[in-house]
Design a protein that fits this description.
Low-confidence stretches: none
Oligomer: single chain
Structural class: alpha+beta
Helix content: 25-40%
Distance between the termini: 50 Å
Largest sheet: 5 strands, antiparallel
Order of helices and strands: EHEHEEEHHHHHEEHEEEEEHHH
Mean pLDDT: 93
Radius of gyration: 19 Å
Number of helices: 11
Length: 288
């Protein structure tokens, strides 16, 4: 049977189609992952729904103490937005991602929903404690990004077949907040990262008051290095960097792979580099 193609003009139309097809419909935003899935015969949907043209889907705005990124915002739009210019870790993650052509079409929402274990934008948004706005014909719900992925499973999320990710929300940065990102790969571009580290830190009177660390490409899904975060509280920037350099994050239970030994050797330096970047950003210094 021939695959149907729809281009939704309104959110209501998109949600109605999602409800109608109940999982037999492939949502396409930028389409960079979807094309590979279709051509690789990983999926064979009854219908394809293009949602990038939905009203408001390309908006980035400060709303109620958070920054709201529309579901259709591309990576290039994120890089160009003055509202995101202070998120140095996120800017670094996007700038290292794929290629200029992919960044012109690809979206953070698509990156999140694909749920790959080595997803640059998702790894940094995870560290930023992002919340996702999911909508269906039956209503709306919010899910923290750290709860969105299925534990120990790649490419699996809690998003229901009739739901659409309409927006991503991250906290507005305050004085003393900083973000950092470190990506290790064989090439600077057009390569899947072998290790991703996202960091979000808050400092007061020169000491860490809050920290969130995410790790990508170490396990089946993104990892929250909570034990290491707790060790950083109360430390100066220099002490926090030294602690990360000397302390292996216990949550990073590396899966078997050709690169396992390499990742074990570089994970501590990578985390300390991302923390150093976040500390510099918290002081108003750009380090990427």
């Amino acid at each position: 049977m021939e695959t149907q193609f729809f281009r939704a003009n309104t959110l209501e139309e998109a949600l109605s189609l999602l409800h109608q097809y109940q999982g037999d419909l492939l949502v396409v935003n930028g389409g960079t992952d979807a094309v590979l899935s279709i051509t690789g015969k990983k999926v064979s949907p009854k219908a394809i729904l293009q949602v990038s043209g939905l009203p408001g889907f390309h908006d980035i705005a400060a709303v109620d103490g958070c920054l709201r990124i529309g579901g259709g915002v591309t990576y290039n739009e994120m890089l160009a937005s003055p509202l995101l210019s202070g998120y140095h870790g996120l800017q670094a993650a996007i700038s290292h991602l794929a290629s200029p052509a992919i960044r012109a079409l690809g979206t953070a929402a698509g990156n999140i929903c694909t749920a790959a274990p080595a997803a640059d934008a998702a790894a940094m948004l995870y560290a930023l404690e992002a919340e996702l706005c999911l909508e269906s014909a039956g209503g709306k719900r919010r899910v923290a990004l750290r709860d969105f992925y299925m534990p120990d499973r790649s490419y699996a999320t809690v998003r229901r077949p009739d739901e659409l990710l309409t927006a991503i929300e991250v906290p507005l940065l305050r004085d003393g907040d900083g973000t950092g990102y470190c990506r290790l790969s064989r090439r600077k571009a057009q390569d899947i990262g072998k290790l991703l580290v996202g960091v979000y830190c808050s400092f007061h009177d020169g000491k860490v008051t809050h920290a969130f660390i995410s790790l990508g490409a170490v396990n089946a899904s993104l990892v929250h290095a909570q034990t290491l975060e707790e060790m950083l509280i109360g430390k100066t920037a220099a002490e926090a960097v030294a602690c990360c350099r000397d302390t292996y994050p216990v949550e990073a239970k590396l899966r078997e792979s050709y690169f396992k030994t390499y990742k074990q050797d570089v994970i501590c330096p990578a985390v300390s580099r991302a923390v150093a970047m976040a500390a510099a950003a918290a002081k108003g210094e750009s380090s990427w």
